[in-house]
Amino acid sequence: MLYSRKLLHSPFAIRDKFFDLDFTLLFSILLLGIISIFAQYSSSGGQFDYHSKSHAVRFCVFFLFFLVVSFINIRFWNDYSLLIFGLLILLLVAVKFWGVQSQGSRRWINLFVFNLQPSELMKVGIILFLSNYYHKISSGDVNKFKYLFYPLLALIIPFMLVASQPDLGTALLILASGIVITWLSGVKWRIFAYLSGFLIVLAPVAISFLKPYQKSRILTFLNPDSDPLGAGYQIIQSKIAIGSGGLFGKGFLNGSQAYLNFLPEKHTDFIFTLYSEEFGFIGSAFMIFLYFMITFRITIIGNNTRSIFGKLYCYGFATAFFIYVAVNMSMVLGLLPIVGAPLPILSYGGSSMLAMMLGLGIVMSCNVYRNNAVG
Amino acid sequence: MLSFNSSNIISKTKTIGRRMFLLNSFKAIVLIGVFGRLVSLQINESSKYKSLADKNRFRETKIAPPRGVIQDYFGNEIASNNKIYQLHIVPDSTPDIDALLFRLKNIINLSDRKLFLLKKQIAKKKSWDTTIISDNLTWPEFSRVNLFLHELQGAQPVVSIARFYTDDSSAHAVGYVSEISKKDLRKKKYLQNLNIEGVAIGKTGLESSLDEQMLGSPGYLRYEVNAYGKKIQQVATDNGLKGKTFRTTLDQSIQKISTEALKNVSGAICVMDIYNGDIVSMVSSPNFNPNSFVHGVSNKEWKGLIENRDKPMLNKAVSGLYPPGSTIKTLTALSALENDIVSPNLTVHCKGYIDFHEERYHCWKKKGHGVINMRTAIKKSCDVYFYEIARRLGVDRLSKTAKKFGLGQKVLTHFAEEKSGIVPSTKWKMQNIGKNWYIGETLHTGIGQGYFLSTPIQLCLMTAQLANGGFMIKPRILANNNDKTGNLQKYLDYKKTNPNDTSWQGKFSNFNVKPLFRNQENINFIKDAMFAASNEPGGTSYVSRHLSKKFMFAGKTGSSQVKRFTSAQREAETKQKDITYLERDHAWFVAFAPVKDPKYAISVLVEHGGSGSSAAAPIAKQVIKKVIERHEARTKQVAQQSSEDT
Fold first, then answer.
1. Nearest-CA residue of chain B relative to A244?
2. What is the ipTM of this complex?
3. From CA A307, how far away is CA A82, in angstroms rounded?
4. Which of A55, A96, B378, B643 could tie A40 with a disulfide, CB 3.0–4.6 Å?
């Protein structure tokens, strides 16, 4: 309530603030969203039905949400980051007990209107929390043992909770974004080296906890041709689809590979495959360019923001966003094992879309309130 | 927090900036890597992948899993699965699709119209999609196709399985399956990702409500094809998972008898176990052949069913709404007794009619019944007596009792088509018609006419709850293996073994049974009056009684008016059979049997049957005999089931 008056300014102030939006970023997101609607339309077999329709509706709603978040003072996010993070942890715990089960994993919580996947929101939550944490402590304290304890907990707890759902892909992505922030804040190389050494020792134990299908995915990645009809099937089919798209692609709604139902998750993780087959190298390069522009603009906003919180958040989110895109694309291009990572904005999935739009909205808010001091 | 000096911020900013630069350089490398991979796949090796995509690709067809079976109480399959022969074609695999279709036209029976529709269907689909030419070939057709297969490239004879209903008697309860319509796809979420060619889904009855669980999960057939679309090798098959099998509480042999009993009339029969609520039989007549729908019903047959005066597609047992007529008199009497309005000894003089507020209300017997008490009034179904009772009772108290006994609400959970009926009250009329209640309407309501509407299953439940001593039961149509004896049975057993425990009234909550009465004597009185109506001379269903103690039942007849008698008709003493069919009264009969130690309740409805005693009671007599004969087998089945469980 402390900020209720300052959070959203009078209409005049909003009009002034409007020109503080970063329009390059805004239009890149909008364009990507429009492309995503076409891609989803194609993935439902050229029908504006089921998930293509709900994807379009979601994008419109969440884009408005993004604009609203942009005008919320950055102080709000700084002050409430711990609360948000705590709430997300509680949600993840709730998922363990009351979560909705689907295809062997328990990832969603039923909110009656829709099923929420808290692990997706955690991708933003961990960045918020750690940015706030390192904003608060002084630069001399960063490497002290006492101040390493909380970040380490913040990295381990969400990771364990999400990995046990089981959702190794999302857990690793959350972990990666957290590590990026700690590293950016100046935690010494040495400490990372110790920890990774420790992890390598633990690796054999961890592998024994993996589900058989997760093990087979990693093995298949190492040698996809060993089992062309089993787990390697998806990688091979994805490569064939993308490769056969050629320079100009097969044209909108004409992708034969995708239509043949080779890709079981063509509207989620493999949406880029479908897009790339239909729009070819030109289309794919353009999409990579759009994603590049988004991360690039976020980094620039980070440069212009005065507060440490804003900087850490922007850099962290830019890197996390880059990681999501890079991991997804590497996965469908056969450079990484299939871990189940959606492509931001393009993939079908409400929680993922919500998380990305929230994250981008906070970035935009950093730009709008770039000259404000944060508590 | 504001105590941080600017040097702290500057040093932090420096570290962050330096490290971000490192991170960005790393990102640039990754970006180049991904981009390079894209170049290599889509430009350098594009031709390789293009030929891979064209020449040597995998195809997948989904296989519909066997649908779950619906069994009767004894495990006999009511809705089972049968082997069928189909013919599929894949346009991609044939050099000339028109020639193939022309050739097929001569081998199997394809009408010109069907051929036209098929061509349209094929044009709409992708060229590698399977189209079903015929989903139910006869054996000679199928063998002919196999004989000529060498000249029919692209045609695939397929042996599949489809729904088969062993007989028509349970057509309404079980429902039927048919192909998915656009409306189904929109309404039922679980179908949206199914995407199997030619799968049939449940449309009505249990087939519809249990559809999702009975569908099973689809399998697939993955195979490799060459440049010409010819199958090279099958690489993987997954037959999917068979849908869940359900055992119902129905008894197929009683279903058959019930159907037979209603053969020439339009109506419904419900039979219920009065202690655990098992629906032993539920039929509606006339019925239809559910097998006709599995492969698409012909236009002519469908039109015949829809335009039939007797509405064969309607499940009258749960969706047919009729005024309960005199069968409600049991509840009118009970309500008056329970509310201490009258005593059973109250006598009323019936002279054939009663004048009330300048209007005349007639008894069904023109000469009148003379001076009678309550027991005789129920036995002879005297209208005038119940006009008097209803007048004293008032409609709101009656409606409260009726609702308590299950009228005015849905009885089962598995039938989307079930209707809840109407139990009128002053409040109901205000809300639904917007007018005040007239006292004259109370009199009509007291004998089950007027706004009153109920379904056969509701009246069966009402009778069952009277017969079991006035305890609430929850009717069910799916057999529950774990439920060996219900709570009510446990309570009654306890009462039987501990006759001296007089505090049993307080044990209702211990046994989790819910009594519907204030004083059980009143229930027993009604039961005794029903006994009189069936087994004492002068009773309304005396003619249809069973002489043997084993089958002896107690029941109440009812005739519900469709159209009011005019005074001219009354004067002329017009017989029901002399008026037009659609204006004749509906005939009701509700009963429980055996009289001593009752076990089952039954309700019979005959649409436009005339009177309950002549049209409905003889049918009930026939069915009750079979139900009691089957009782032993049923208890054995319970014992067997529970021993299997342990």
1. B50
2. 0.88
3. 18
4. A55
